[in-house]
Amino acid sequence: MTDTKTWARVKSPWVLHFNAGACNGCDIEIVALLTPKYDVERFGIKLEPSPRHADVLLVTGAVTHQCAERLKRVYDQMPQPKFVVAIGACACSGGVFEGNYSVIGGVDKVIPVTAYIPGCPPRPEAIIDGVVKLLNALNPPKQKTNKAEAKPEATPIVGR
Amino acid sequence: MASNNLELISLVESKFGDKIQVQRNLLGAATITAHNGLHYDVMKALLEADEKTGVTSITGLDLGANLGVYYHIHTSKPFITIKAEVPKVNPTIKTLIDIHPGAAFHEKEVADLVGVVFEGHATPGHFVLPETWPEGVFPLRKDVKATEVKPVPTPEREANVLPENQRLVKIIIGPQHPALLEPEKFSVTVEGETVTKVDPRIGYVHRGIEKSAESRTYLQDVYLVERVCGICNPCHAYGFVGAVEKILKADIPERAQYLRVIALELNRIHSHLLTLGHAGLEIGYETIFQYFWRDREPIMDLIELTSGNRVYGSLITIGGVRRDLNSIDIPKIKEGMKNLRNQLPFYNKIYREEPTLRLRMSEVGVMSREDAIKLSVVGPVARGSNYDTDIRKDIPYEAYGEIPFKEIVYSTGDVWARMNVRLDEVEESINIIDYALDHLPSGPIKVDLPRAVIAGEAVCSLEAPRGELFYYVRSNGTDMPERVKIRTPTFANIPSFLKSAIGESIADVPSNFVSLDPCFSCTDR
Q: Is B476 within 8 Å of B482 (Cβ atoms)?
């Protein structure tokens, strides 16, 4: 049963995109992933508008104070197991906005992050690479899969 | 042409005599200093004298004992700035919203960030700042160490208060919503399916860029202000750089001016293609979304070719541009332009003849020319309402004065008109790039300018893809600016949506909204 679940999850991860105070650079690159040149649907990745149906949360932006609580709420609404990918320099560490008064600086200060994809903005190829690495990490060896299920706050896989 | 504007200034001068001081050729065509509530009368006189008068931006700044409130006014010809000052102990100034409703958003922002109280315009709560920000602390004042401000606990979550009238229902769009790529909240009140009111709450993407620009050097600021927006970043770089160069009175080499135009127009093409596709997505027509974004990718490759990166190329820098075009690049750009030009008849056919698209876009979100002027609307939204405002034509900057191109104006004022303005502008941008490549002057691409900028102030406005982008920079002789004010096009255009959505079906809200080409990271900064 677990195998089937992992298979389904890896073959067809539904991703939710949340902008937590980004400049649109990363966000447009994420949308560009869905379009003919990059076409991530070939990996079964589908952009899903509702947190309740999403497996992976793609977060961009330096996380403003105004967004932080909303980000947490969106994360809480997602069903287990869930994975968070921080996309862009701002989401990884605050980037150029680090230290500004209305910015928390980094997604991992609010919710646990599974993978980091740095860049300002990361190229679409880099985002695909990061997401595919995350998917590979969910697949066997078997023990790892179980661990990831039991403990969604897994250690970072990419970057850092 | 300039005579028109000089007449206007002379008129104001003769009307108010020595109660005001007029300084010509500063912050636009002239700066009028009008304290003690006279700014209201000057604005009224300007509104009566020139139909196209409106507020571009209001800059609030800390001048020590006083707070400055600078009204940047656009008329049918260049800018005028009205300077007023109020004491910090009692920062009260008369509002302009009764004579010019377009000033409302700007006043709210100044009240929130600088703490000026606009008499006759209640601005309760935060507008741009986060809810956790303490009341009575204003980040753009010099004595506030913004990083030391402790956030207060979040106030009670706003309950979805049902309107008193039982027939009304409140629908909240955002901050996380499938139709919005960015977080922003719009509370739409509907009666049945008809929208009766829209309340915006902006500030979800407010990163405090204006404040942090004050603690970085000018060169660092170029990279910072670019990151206001990931779509129109060369425009932001140019807005800041243009203002700094005006303070320094620098002469930019001609070749650099042409290269800047090429960068700005490539950016316009990619931004317009993005929006034209996104509009398709919002009305449930995903095919054209995929088509437009497919054709946008070669343009991204050209941006990478000219600047070095897909998104943040940082081509425009203080004194010129960072990279030159060589003889191998130019044919590649020309080829890209030719390919896109060949695609345009197909897109024209879709946008003009496709019946499903017309059904969702024609006569939706109609805004009259009078409303567009009254609300100080900018860019393709204004031009779709027959309001001919294009900074490239009105105040030509860089090489735009030498390059022939058409200003696209449509008269129906609906979503369809706004999208067609953009589609036609793509073609004009291709023409501009072709012309610029054919007439590219030789010579240097950059002049060296001092790192410390002499004390002074300047404004720079340019036509970004979404409309007029406005920068005000004030320097104090050091290598860091004293104040940077950014007025972005979406900030000016949101009021038009709040008005045109009323009386329409809730189902038309996404298509009406996307026709503004909204960019919240610009709006909030």
A: yes
Q: How confident is the model at residue B514 (pLDDT cuts 50, 70, 90)?
A: confident
The H-or-E segment that residue B466 falls in is none
Q: What is the pLDDT of residue A145?
A: 46
Examine the predicted complex and report whether its ipTM is higher than 0.95.
no
Chain B residues touching A101 at Cβ < 8 A: 139, 146-147, 149, 208, 211
CATH number at residue A59: 3.40.50.12280
Residue B3 is predicted with a pLDDT of 43
Pairing of strands B80-87, B30-33: parallel
Q: Which of B283, B302, B463, B434 is nearest to B357 (CA)?
A: B283
- What is the model's pTM? 0.85
The residue with greater pLDDT, B177 or B415, is B415
Nearest-Cα residue of chain A relative to residue B144: A101
DSSP annotation of B153 reads: P
Q: Which residues of B touch A66 (CB under 8 A)?
A: 130-132, 203-204, 206
The answer to whether the Cβ–Cβ distance between B207 and A21 falls below 8 Å is yes
Architecture of domain B2-146: 2-Layer Sandwich (3.30)
**10-residue mean pLDDT series, chain A (160 residues):** 71 83 85 85 80 86 85 86 87 84 85 88 87 75 47 48
* Structural domain boundaries, residue A60: 2-150
Sheet-wide strand order for B30-33: B21-24, B30-33, B80-87, B66-74, B54-62
CATH topology of domain B209-316+327-524: Cytochrome-c3 Hydrogenase; chain B (1.10.645)
Spell out the domain ranges in chain B: 2-146, 209-316+327-524
